[in-house]
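tool_call: predict_structure(chain=1)
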Amino acid sequence: MTLTTHAVIGAAAASMVPGHPTLAFGLAFASHFVLDAIPHWHYPVKSMKKDKRDRMNNDMVIGRYFVSDMAVIGSDALLGIGISLIVFSYFGHLSWQLILIGTIAGILPDPLQFVYWKFRHEPFIYLQRLHMGIHATTDLDDRLLLGVGSQILLILGAVLAIMLIV
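tool_result:
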C-alpha cells in the first residue's frame, strides 16, 4: 500500500474520535495493518533486499539507490499528508493537529520497519512479526491499473465517508 493511502485512511480513522488524540493515534496506527492485509500494489524500491524464504530477513540497503528511494518514499508520504490536510480541514472541518496525528500514525508502521532492519531488537522484532504476519501474501504489483485504482477508490471512499459523518 502506498504511504499516500495509509496517510489519508489514517486521517479518516483519526477523525472518527476528534476529541481523543490518543485514541485517534491508535485507530490510525491500526488502520495501517488493516490496509496491509488487503492485497495491494507497491511501487518498486530498488534498495530493498528481499529474502524469499524468510521475510524477517528483508533489509533496505543504504547504498546506490537509497537516496532516490527515500525521495520517492518521502514524496509519497508528503502527498498523503498534503491531501489529508487539504481535504479533511476544508471539507471535514477538522483541526490540522488531528489530521497530522492520523496521517503520521497511519504511516508510522512502515518507517518502523526500517528501524527494525537496522536495529533488530525488541519491541521492533515483535512489531515486524506482526506487520509481516498481517501483510497480504499476494500482491498486485504486476497489475498496475487494478493496484493503483483500488487504492484511489479506498482514498475516495474514506474521504466521502468522513464528509458524510462529520
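agent: Residues 41 and 47 are 18 Å apart (CA to CA). Proceeding to next step.
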